[in-house]
Write a structure and sequence with these properties.
Blueprint: E1 20-22, E2 31-33, E3 39-45, H1 49-64, H2 66-70, E4 72-78, H3 82-93, E5 105-108, H4 110-118, H5 131-134, H6 139-143, E6 163-168, H7 169-179, H8 189-205, E7 218-220, H9 223-233, E8 239-242, E9 245-248, H10 252-260, H11 263-267, H12 278-283, E10 289-293, E11 303-306, E12 309-312, E13 315-319, E14 329-331, E15 336-339, H13 344-357, H14 360-370, H15 382-392, H16 398-409, E16 415-417, H17 425-452, H18 457-461, H19 467-486
Parallel strand pairs: 3-4, 3-5, 7-10, 14-16
Antiparallel strand pairs: 1-2, 5-15, 6-10, 6-13, 8-9, 11-12
Length: 487
């Protein structure tokens, strides 16, 4: 937790100004704020736990300092999970009975922001940010907020994330020592598949009287990221978007590689997904490693809880795997913030809060608590992170620190990527999330039932991993993508 600091608020001179004037007003207007009659800004977000505590602390500090001086008062409200927040936003846009009006400012992913903008509900932030100000932020993060090939900015980065590979280092060691396996093999997607098979066979061999009882090694939180980034690493934008118009590019040979390195090892028992998140599966001892967001590192367990008892485990943060022979793209994710179209005063005040929140010191205080990535160019540096931690006496957990510095240390060798927005992008991405993963879960269940009935696992798996099985799924998958894109 960030330690609460006493803040000296300089009041001298404040009363001498009844109005504060800000530049960059809507359509050339001069925006006037009154410190004696502050404008109230409502923010909806999805932060919980330590993330919410860090956000609330910064809001409190803003209100006591810059907000008080300028005449801006911010009220933050957690709407629960990302899904809960998205529903609250969509209900507000649709003006459903009982729905609250849209807040002045809200956390959102690009697909949701795009849908709201399509309803004419978002403010163009270019009215309130100069070119010089925007140049201080990571270029890829800013570009995500331009939905079209024009100069309209609708989504602003406040904290970003990407993916890493989290490993149960304690239970990895005896397996690695016994089989000669190295973490170097985990750098590629295909390498993970090979290691997972080896782990399954190694654990199966420990009970020679019980056949086919090997354990899964790996899981993945976001299957849509697997598709999007895997395809990009192989040189293809699965969603090829030009000014809001999408062309689907699920090239068969490349999709087959994704099938072979997720579905096939899943139905064979090398991968699994049992809990809500893969960190849950590490905690129950059902897997040793998973690919998930940097922010998920906060939830990587400190112990494995099994029927035989609880035991402490260590961890290792490794780079997210890359398709063999592919380019080193990492997913760019994490919600930005959008400003609801209202009036110049509220829009300007919301942007002033975002500017303050993303100042180097403030933004680093937040990301060090939440395991997100800083959004400013001058903050994406391990030395700067260490300096802020020391100066602010921040209590940063080792997992959060290791995850953050792992990405910052790779900044010269990786490139972030996210898909552009398009109509029905949210629904189309959900096909990537659930189409293959739901099939894998259902087919694995059927295979397990066949094995329980006496069939050898190899025999039970065989009909699910044929060329014909892939072709049928691929045709159904492409049709589902097309239907979602035009629905």
């Amino acid at each position: 937790m960030i330690k609460k600091r006493w803040i000296a608020v300089v009041l001298a001179g404040t009363m001498a100004f009844s109005l504060l004037t800000g530049c960059g007003g809507k359509q050339g207007e001069t925006v006037k704020l009154d410190p004696n009659n502050p404008v109230s800004i409502t923010v909806w977000h999805y932060y919980n736990g330590g993330q919410q505590a860090a956000f609330d602390q910064l809001v409190e500090e803003f209100n006591a300092t810059e907000g008080k001086e300028k005449g801006i008062y911010v009220e933050g409200y957690s709407k629960g999970s990302v899904a809960d927040l998205e529903k609250a936003i969509s209900d507000s846009v649709a003006e459903k009975v009982g729905a609250q009006p849209l807040p002045d400012l809200f956390s959102t992913y690009a697909d949701t922001a795009y849908a709201v903008q399509q309803q004419g509900k978002l403010s163009n932030l270019r009215q309130y940010f100069s070119d010089d100000e925007l140049s201080e932020y990571v270029d890829d993060y800013i570009q995500e907020g331009y939905f079209y090939d024009n100069d309209a900015l609708y989504l602003f980065p406040v904290a970003k994330s990407t993916e890493v590979l989290m490993l149960n280092a304690t239970d990895w060691k005896p397996f690695a020592d016994a089989t000669g396996t190295s973490t170097e093999e985990l750098k590629t997607v295909e390498g993970i598949t090979k290691v997972a098979q080896r782990y399954y066979e190694w654990t199966d061999s420990k009970t020679p009287n019980i056949p086919d009882d090997g354990k899964a090694f790996y899981g993945r939180d976001s299957i849509s990221n697997y598709f999007v980034i895997g395809m990009k690493q192989m040189g293809v934008d699965i969603f090829d978007v030009n000014n809001g118009e999408v062309t689907l590019r699920p090239e068969k040979d490349k999709i087959r590689r994704l099938w072979d390195n997720y579905y096939v090892p899943y139905v064979k028992g090398y991968f699994t997904s049992l809990g809500k998140f893969r960190s849950d599966d590490v905690k129950t001892g059902d897997i040793l490693a998973y690919t998930g967001s940097t922010s998920s590192s906060m939830y990587f367990p400190d112990e494995v809880v099994e029927d035989s008892g609880d035991r402490i485990i260590g961890y290792e943060v490794l780079p997210a795997p890359v398709m063999e022979g592919g380019k080193a793209y990492n997913v760019q994710q994490g919600a930005g913030m959008a400003v609801t179209k209202s009036d110049a005063v509220h829009e300007y005040a919301a942007c002033e809060f975002m500017k303050w929140f993303t100042e180097k010191e403030n933004n680093l205080r937040f990301v060090c608590e939440s395991a997100y990535l800083p959004v400013r160019k001058d903050a994406n540096n391990v030395k700067i992170v260490d300096k802020i931690i020391k100066e602010q006496n921040l209590n940063v957990t080792p997992k959060t620190y290791d995850c953050l510095t792992s990405i910052l240390n790779q900044s010269d060798s990786i490139k972030f990527y996210t898909t552009k927005c398009f109509d029905n992008g949210y629904n189309t991405r959900k096909i990537l999330d659930y189409n293959l993963s739901d099939k894998a879960v259902a087919d694995r269940k059927a295979i397990d039932e066949a094995v329980a009935a006496g069939k050898a696992r190899k025999e039970a798996v065989a009909p699910y991993v044929t060329e014909a099985a892939f072709d049928k799924w691929y045709d159904d998958f492409c049709k589902a993508l097309e239907d979602a894109a035009i629905s």
